[in-house]
Amino acid sequence: MSAAKQIIQWRADGMGLSGTTVTIKDDTLVITVPDDDGAAARRLAQTGELTVRPVLTAAPPTGKGPAAPDATAARISRQSSDPAVQQQAIAELDCAATDPLRGADDPALPLVTCAADGSEVLLLGPSVLDNRAISDARAHLDPQSTRHVVDVTFTAEAADRFEALTTENVNRRIAFVVDTVVVSAPMVVSPTSAGQTQIAGNFTAESAGELANSLRFGKLPVPFAER
């Protein structure tokens, strides 16, 4: 709990939320943001788990199936290695519905999930990199594209793995997934050996900054629920 408290405090400082207090009361972490309706506190408490996965296939959402009642049921249908189960999950996943699997997927298994804007359902391979691979992350406005982006710097060991991933996936897509949602899935044009990459999505200045803070300060060790 103390580790989660420290990470949330770092995130609050990075987001410029002055006056934010994070306290431990019994088994509860209490986040107080002055003059906030609760939205900022909820964002601070998001798990912030990054995975980098190869994209195996993608399709427009149809959302024909019933929603899974909980994370366990969602994991069975959406993290199966059976191609038939995977195709059914792609056909049934409703990107407009609340995701019970959010932030609770198993990085070692395939994953059927949605793009952040709801435009695609993607089947992803197991994760190759996670938060531990990142040594720094910074948000800024790209002057060429005029889009808000997040520049990511990998650790030395992770840089080698990212180079291998991009080498194996030239002319294919890789996905940057945060809390089970695909925030960016670019096409790999050539191998990346510089130990850095850029995440570009439909970000505002605020959301890009929040993502950078989550990646820079690490994921929360446990998920939190609002009370």
Automatic annotation (TrEMBL):
Keyword match Cell wall biogenesis/degradation: no
Entry GO CC: plasma membrane
Pfam entry (one): SecDF_P1_head
Q: Does the keyword Transmembrane apply?
A: yes
Domain SecDF P1 head subdomain, residue spans: 117-222
GO biological processes: protein transport
The UniProt keywords, alphabetically, are: Cell membrane, Membrane, Protein transport, Translocation, Transmembrane, Transmembrane helix, Transport
Q: What is this protein called?
A: SecDF P1 head subdomain domain-containing protein
